[in-house]
From TrEMBL:
InterPro entries for this protein: 3-oxoacid_CoA-transf_A (IPR012792), CoA_trans_fam_I (IPR004165), NagB/RpiA_transferase-like (IPR037171)
GO molecular function: CoA-transferase activity
Source organism of this protein record: Agromyces agglutinans
Keywords: Transferase
Protein name as it appears in the record: 3-oxoacid CoA-transferase subunit A
Domain of life, source organism: Bacteria
Amino acid sequence: MTLDKTVPSAAEAVADIPRGASLAVGGFGLCGIPSVLIQALLERRVGDLSVVSNNCGVDDWGLGLLLGAGLIRKMTSSYVGENKEFERQYLSGELELELTPQGTLAEKLRAGGAGIAAFFTQTGVGTQVAEGGLPRRYASDGSIAEASAPKPVQTFTVRGEEREFVLEEAITTDFALVHALRGDRHGNLVFDKSARNFSPLAAMAGRVCVAEVEELVEPGAIDPDSVHLPGIFVDRVVEVGRDIEKRIERRTVRAAGEGN
């Protein structure tokens, strides 16, 4: 593999993602999402996708574009409350959903990238996350067509106290799509603020990682101590520039003079 991982366009970067692929997609809300790569995938109309991401964008932006076009079969997420079309598809039985606690989802992605098959966590013990029964897919009549299965629970002694832990399996996907503030030709990436939450983990979990970067620099231009994700995890880099559209998921304002 050449050390220069750059590709000339987003279209070329996602050209080999097939129908039925699984994707880990970085970002948090609408912050740091790979919007250019998502648009390129939308233009190809690649369907039957299984997507792992903290959320599914909004109705007209981010992963919500793929959802609205009927291209997503299953979502694995921790928060889905900002997308009306998501609600409609899920409740009508068109979309499968695997709800996962946010920290658990992050660790499942990290574990997948680190080669760890599974891990134990206290999160979800005593709830349907561990006991099963969470609706994963509804039937058209509103009944539950498929529910989550029970997960193994085991007792461990921690600091002299016996506690129950639930076994969670790691996540790996066929591809990962991430957005970075800066990257070099070797694939070393720097993420911007809260966009760092899920993006490095999603990148690690994908067997093929595609990164869009706002600024492409030459190898050595990024201080090694400032690299958030080393290039060993990245397979393709495409520069998208800093003038791409960025949206705020929910803008909250107050009247002039109100408060301090």
